[in-house]
Amino acid sequence: MSSTLTRRNILKLAGGSVLGFLLSPMPWKTLDDVSIWTQNWSWIPKVPRGPITHKFTSCSLCPSACSVKARMTSGKPVSLWGLPGTEIRRGALCSIGLAGHHLAFHPTRIRETVRVKKLVEGVTFDPVSPDDLVAHLATILREIQSHPREGTFALLDGRPGGMTSDMHRLIMSHLDASTYILPDAYDGCFMEALGEMTEEPTAQYGLNLSRTRTILNFGASLFEGWGSSPQVLEQFRSRRNELTIIQVDPQRSASAVCANHWIPIKPGSETAFALGLANVIIRERLHDPSMTARAVDLDRSKPFSFMDLTRQFPPSRVSSLTEIPEQLIVETARQFASDKPAIALADDFSGEVLHRIVWGLNALVGAIGKEGSVSHKHQLPRPWKEYQQAPVTRLSEIPDHSIRLLIVDGSLTDSTIPWSTLHRKLRSENCTVVHCSPYQPQQADLIDYIFPVHAPYETYRDTPTGSYSRKTGFSISAPLWNGPQGTCEAWQLLQRIVTTAGISLKGGLAGLQPSNLLRSQTDAIFHAKRGALHLPAVNETVPVIEVTSSDEFHAAILDGAVWSDEDVAPPSSGKFLFLGKSVAASETLVRSVLATGNLASRDANEFPLLLVPVDREVASRFAQVSPIMSKLYQESGLKPSPQIAHIHHETAERFDLVDNGKVVIRSTHGSTEAVLRFDGSVRPDTVEVSASKIDTIRSRHGALPQASEIMGHAGREQWNHLMFVRIERA
Amino acid sequence: MNSGWLSFLLGFGGMLLVGWVFFPSLLYHSEPQPLQFSHAAHTGEAVGMTCDNCHAFSSEVRSAAIPQIAKCIECHSEPLGETEAERRLIDEFISLNREISWRTYARQPDNVYFPHIQHVQVAEIPCERCHGPHGTSDSLITVQVNRISGYSRNIEGQIVPGLRFREWDRMKMNDCSECHNERGVRESCLKCHK
Amino acid sequence: MNSSEHLTSQYVMVIDVDRCTGCGACMIACAIENNVSPAHPDATDRTGVTWMRVVKVDSGKNGNGQQARFLPLPCQQCAAQTPCVTVCPQNAVEVDESTGIVFQMPQRCFGCRYCMAACPYHARYFNWWDPEWPEGMEQTLNPDVAPRMRGVVEKCNFCHGRYHAARAAAAEEGHPTSDNVRYEPACAQACPTQAITFGTLADEESGVGELIRSATAFRILPKLGTEPRVYYLSELKWIRQLAEREKELPTGEEVHG
User: Fold this and answer.
1) pTM for this model (two decimals)
2) pLDDT category, A668, cuts 50, 70, 90?
3) What are phi and psi of A156, to 5 degrees?
4) Which residues of chain C from 169 to 208 reach within 8 Å of chain A, CB to CB?
5) CB of C185 within 8 A of CB of C171?
6) Does C101 touch chain B if contact means CB atoms closer than 8 Å?
């Protein structure tokens, strides 16, 4: 047989192969599998598998400290849910809290110590060894101790009130030429302002809204979506028909939408409005009669009494300052003074002067008395009472150009750091700024080094109940993730610097670890022998005296238990000082009030529009939010997008601007681009620009326009000042 | 014989051989188990365990219910026999309290919702119905994973064209449907898909 | 409100508009529960994926008389003439008879987006991009819901992952396997003012039966005949008029979002 390799044979070979190929699984299976392959791209993540467990913890993102039940798969958190739990921890998580477990992986996360290099085009972060940094800072600290005239050491605490703050103060009490600074405004400072106006033995104040009928709100977050008092949400849920909420706000915020009445005052005129209300209440004798006895400075003090101040603000004058009709001012005052219990609230960041006036209003309507909405609280039992703590200095009291080494503790909240004011306090040369934060900071060009601290849910953090709560309480935020190696808390950095500098720390502070710090705190609470412990795993509450040992108490706290204190009866009487306890502060108050209404001169032709920064809550309170917040900011119009400015169509017409048009907004500080949208709720002659720092929303147009760019260097502290801008088509 | 036919047959036969014999071995990537384990030694008469002694099904577990090292420790904290596999178990895993990363035979796609609870506890289907005589096997076979689609041969079909002679030869959607229909369980997409 | 077309075993959602504060917790909880990724850099309010979306609606008046409310909009789970089911060429969406859930299967979808055109409530969302989570965040995916790839449409399924988990838990406890097992979708659980109620008409404890029969209950675009399973409550007449669109509203009304 001849097996000649003819063309025909080759063709037949090929033909046979094709038939064999088609009768084999090869083509069919391959096609099938390829189509499956195209539906399973390797970069689409696969869901985790493993046992589902739950862990109880608390949210540490804002002082409300909501109780959290974390759902875990194979030991990693998959979702967080609120727990009703105790009366002081309503535990309905806000949208930021729901995504708290994402924060460990935020794209701007910093996991190693870096040095900030400032270049023309921006900043870069170069890793440095933490030991080298500690040694370097220790050297500077030693120099400061020996040559205090050449500059001081200062530490700014972004969110005071917790164990970290106490540790900062304990360590710093061993140092010379050093100051522990609080920003002029921080979470909870509104409630604390009351302490400066009373002479009661009570340590602290809170709110009890369970029977409140009127809430007069000067911009506090009631319904902004986060940072709100859980009590307000609970009252809104259960007693909406008995509650009247009056929102005094230049912008129709979410709180204004949910309120019964919105008073659209001219931006910056809150103080005048509050004084106008006080004027009406006093004039029509609607105030609580016991106040005349309790408060010497209501009508009798020299050179000014509170009444003297209010006389400067009759409704006619207030109406022109606030652009609110006189009748509405009078009606609001009457409603506030008669539908009681009533309470007036103010945003923590709205300034000390307004806080004082608002507390004055509260005193006039009896909110601080027995039948009022203010509750009295014990202080949280603390383990280190006998140790000396460095005194607190407010930022405004620091002399300019005096700080040589500054450590900023922004571990919980970077956004409220008042960078531009801080900048003035630094020496113009030969100064070092270290920022402790888990994320890239907002104002990197002012910072020399960034020291990474834990992100939320990476370590045990204390979460004492915030200032608005009815009773004092305590719990911890238990970790859900393992943090990166080498990160520690901001106070531990301070501890290392001080010990490396050779300064000895008393009382075992040198070797203190977070775990024994936490243990001594829970021991202090346990030994106070009061209050109750709520155990979320079994949904039971146990009085503390029935807890058998401090070990058991500590273990329960680590498992997410919440301790709440006992009720404190309000004292029967107590002196109230409308102008405040300290002479200096009351003088400042009087001066500011008398100056109200005198707007800084500006060229009305060049900058004809008033700027209203909106969505301030996010920028006020949170270091960072999960990228999933794009649902609210970018993928829907629910929250004001940082790219969009809002204006009333009538105002826009006067300046020849179109809806959805690209514009440039200019001020004396700078300019920013935005897209302009018409909105009928915006006040005439104003433009609303987003203040929030949502940098996960990446713009198609490049850099993200933010209010801070127009308001000056990190303008958070500037928001209480009026800012004028002009808008042009881009 | 005509050389043309021979060529044809050569091509035909050759391609059939490649397609039916070599192709499957190329297509599937074998993953051996990290440790050998004899089901027969545990379920046989000597020890007499049953499936649920080690494989626990709970509505709170999203996985194949393969036991964790704690289950092995219950008996094997001390050597019970003289096999190499047991020695490795104790030296490399139990003494270090290290989980054994078993490979799964029957990993369904992410979009499939299969709760063992409803099938084992409520419908009382024997394990062999879907998993075959795995419980009486002497050793663990390698897991063969399709290089292109990523699914195992247990799911796609032991026999390459996906033919199914025994009930456990394949675990695709139609196989689930068939059993559901037999038992009169009402079907809907929502029931089984995530 | 004719609710007779709902079987008592089928699920119904009731949203109290007067209690909604526009906080968006429901939107975030939904995205976390259902493995919806953060937005692509180029995404906008037209191209994003928000199975639950809260919009702000205005009463149309100007000045101080203007009122606004927030309206959470999930898939309305149409019970009759379900438009998306009718038009899908792939049978990638199905009305589940026992629960009433209009179940979307992205695995079958090939992305023609006919259903998006058909849906009168704009409740369907297309994946213009592959989902992407920042590195490390993919560990937080919910094991009960499959992630989707680009090119397919997805929407609210009344938290089918939770439905499955509830059925499995009921089976484990030895309850007879029923189709109307009680469970709570993520949005209802997250709402801080408890504005969202969910349950079956047969389940009296959920209270939905009473709520949908109340005088303040309404549905969106009822004249289309889709018989949605999502009911709303509001004391304000202008909202009901806006939703029902029975007559022309004064000009100047705005809907944002």
Assistant:
1) 0.93
2) confident
3) -100, 125
4) 186, 189-194
5) no
6) yes
